[in-house]
Every structure is written in structure tokens, then in C-alpha cells.
Design goal:
- The structure holds two protein chains of two kinds.
- By secondary structure, chain A is an alpha/beta fold.
- Chain A has a single domain, classed as Glycogen Phosphorylase B (Rossmann fold), CATH 3.40.50.2000.
- Chain A has helices spanning 15-30, 45-52, 55-58, 73-82, 114-117, 121-133, 145-155; strands at 3-8, 36-41, 63-66, 89-94, 106-109, 139-142, 162-164, 166-167.
- In chain A, helix 1 (15-30) crosses helix 2 (45-52).
- The longest helix of chain A has 16 residues, at 15-30.
- In chain A, 40% of the residues are buried.
- Chain B is an alpha/beta fold.
- Chain B is 40% helix and 15% strand.
- In chain B, strand 4, helix 3 and strand 5 (96-99) form a beta-alpha-beta unit.
- In chain B, helix 1 packs across helix 5.
- The chains are: A alpha/beta, B alpha/beta.
- The interface between A and B is large, with 42 and 35 residues.
Chain lengths: 169, 166
């Protein structure tokens, strides 16, 4: 069945990004008029945060939990490039580092400064992958203007693609 | 009088814990009252100077409690999209020592103790920590506050929903 909104947070595992994503998930769950699903992975920091607050227990039907090995970057490359997620949702909010290549009605919540600034091989590979996946039809949300400026400079994007507002944590 | 700085960050190279440990060694010689609490494990670095306490990873609630017990936040990351501890410390009005980099300047404006990370990182850090100590003694400490307007996540989700086509 196709839902209104999917919030994709399968790879969220860091402390800061989990804190932010937990807040966004709670707000999305408050939107009762929208039929939504939330995708996370098992044993992640985000899973821990949501479990400890009883959110998973309370919204079991809305939260889909994938095994932890789905956070593997090679699996992510396959998912983000090949899965036709638009068959499963009208709107997509992606909290992970990379957007879905094929979904045109998508907001990428960008929160990984390492993709712009990181210098080691791991970051360089992620940067290349990001460059491949990010398209002019994606909407990109950034918390701060310095990240928006850096993304514009580095990836040849359009300023009209961006939403930039600082939100509570 | 003890002056305690708190650095809540996991261990990653871009968080510059190594630079703090270098600075702490220099500071200990003449300013042993300046102390540091780090949220990394004790065994990551060897031969830590006595003014450093490594307490390991702690929950968010404990981070806030530790901030309240500290005289200032120290945050040394080379890059961040936001830097959540800056927001948390600002909410408490806690002074902040931070490199003068875009992620910090955008959030804190002029309300922070900045140092230049592009010169000699640890030396610049030592100088600003000593400046902070002098300000404490003179009762002139600069407290932090957040510059941009902050919206709720409920409002943000509404913005997202409007932006996404039906």
C-alpha cells in the first residue's frame, strides 16, 4: 500500500543525528492526518533513543525496523540507486547522508558536514557517491546557512532547492 | 579556585581531542587550576596530564548535568553541520570556547571565546583559555547566546509537508 510520507532514517546512528531525528520523528507522528511510515535500523543509536522513550512501542505499526546490516554502505548504494521508493510513498523525507536517486518528491535533511569537509578516503568516497545521487529536483534542508553555501559551492546546486531554518534540538 | 571546561564529543579525528590534550599539558605547568572533562574513554590517549578527566560516553541528560557543573563549554571540532552542544550550552548561558569557524560564528555571533585554528591550534587554544581565566578573575566572562531564530520541529514538519507536492 502506498503511504503519504515515508521518513527514511535507516542509516542514522550518530549521537547528534539521532537526537535530531528523534525530534523530527516525534513531530511527524503528531501529524495524524498523514498516513506515514518511519524506516530505521536495529541496534542503532536512533533505535536506542526511540526505544528508551517508548516511541517504538507506542507506534509499532508506523515504525519499520530493518536489521542492522542494512546500514552497510554497499547495501545503501544499492538501495539508494535502485529501489523505486516512489512506488511506496508520495512524499519522502530522507534523514540519511544520501538521497534516493529516483524519488523526485523528496526532502533530503542534510546533516553530514563530513561529506563537504572530510578529507580521508572514506569521506572522499562518500562525497563522490553524494555527487552522483544528488539531483536538481531534490529539495535539500539545512539547519545553517554555512552548510547551504558549502553545498552550493561544492555540488553545483540551485539556491532554490534549499530550505534553511534552525530548529530546536 | 578550579576552572573546569567540559568537552562533550565522541572520539573522531576532526574533533581535535589530540590538540586539547597537547594544550592541557602546556596549561598544567603554570595554570593547574584549569581542568578539563572529556567524554572519551581513558585508554584512547596515553600519558594524559593530571588536569584531564575522561569520563567516557554519557547520556544526554548527564551531558546537561555536567554542563551545569562546568565553568565553560569547550568545542573543538573542525567541521559541523550544527554542533548540538553549542545550542545546549547557549540555552544554559554557559560561556563557550570554540575555533573561529563558520559553524560556530553562525550560531554564536560574537558571544563566544574564539581562537584561530589555522595558526598553531594548541597554542591559540592555550592563549584563549588563559584569557578566559583572566575574565573569570575580573568577573567579565562573556556568556553565550544563540543568534538565529529557532523554530519548533512541529513547524519544520509543516514546512516540509507544504513544500512536498501532493
Amino acid at each position: 500500500m502506498k503511504v503519504d510520507i515515508i521518513l527514511w532514517a535507516m542509516c542514522i546512528n550518530g549521537e547528534g543525528s539521532s537526537l535530531v531525528t528523534k525530534k523530527i520523528i516525534k513531530s511527524l507522528l503528531n501529524l495524524e492526518e498523514k498516513n506515514s511510515k518511519i524506516i530505521i535500523s536495529d541496534s542503532s543509536t536512533l533505535f536506542r533513543f526511540l526505544s528508551s522513550n517508548g516511541i517504538i512501542e507506542k507506534h509499532r505499526k508506523k515504525i519499520i525496523i530493518f536489521p542492522s546490516y542494512f546500514r552497510n554502505y554497499f547495501i545503501q548504494i544499492i538501495i539508494k540507486t535502485l529501489i523505486p521508493i516512489n512506488y511506496f510513498c508520495n512524499c519522502l523525507i530522507t534523514m540519511d547522508d544520501f538521497p534516493f536517486y529516483l524519488h523526485k518528491n523528496q526532502i533530503l535533511y542534510f546533516q553530514q558536514a563530513g561529506i563537504i569537509e572530510g578529507n580521508n578516503l572514506r569521506w572522499k568516497l562518500r562525497r563522490i557517491f553524494f555527487q552522483i545521487l544528488i539531483r536538481k529536483y531534490h529539495i535539500i534542508y539545512t539547519q545553517t546557512f554555512h552548510i547551504k553555501r558549502s553545498l552550493l559551492n561544492k555540488f553545483n546546486l540551485n539556491p532554490k532547492q534549499f530550505i534553511t531554518r534552525l530548529h530546536e534540538v | 579556585m578550579e576552572i573546569r571546561f567540559f568537552y562533550p564529543a565522541s572520539y573522531y579525528p576532526h574533533k581535535n581531542h589530540y590538540q586539547l590534550i597537547k594544550a592541557a599539558k602546556i596549561i598544567f605547568k603554570n595554570n593547574p587550576e584549569i581542568k578539563f572533562t572529556l567524554t572519551i574513554e581513558k585508554d584512547i590517549f596515553k600519558n594524559l596530564s593530571p588536569n584531564i578527566d575522561c569520563i567516557g560516553n554519557i547520556s544526554r541528560d548527564k551531558v546537561i548535568k555536567q554542563m551545569k557543573k562546568s565553568d565553560a563549554l569547550i568545542f573543538l571540532s573542525s567541521f559541523e553541520s550544527l554542533g548540538i552542544p553549542l545550542i545546549e550550552a547557549s540555552n544554559l548561558g554557559l560561556p563557550i570556547v570554540v575555533p573561529k569557524l563558520p559553524y560556530a560564528v553562525e550560531i554564536l555571533g560574537s558571544n563566544a571565546y574564539y581562537f584561530d585554528p589555522k595558526k598553531n591550534f594548541s597554542e591559540s587554544l592555550v592563549n584563549i583559555l588563559i584569557k578566559f581565566k583572566e575574565d573569570i578573575l575580573l568577573n567579565k566572562v562573556k556568556c553565550s547566546s544563540i543568534q538565529p531564530k529557532i523554530i519548533t520541529t512541529d513547524s519544520l514538519i509543516q514546512i516540509f509537508v507544504k513544500k512536498l507536492k501532493k
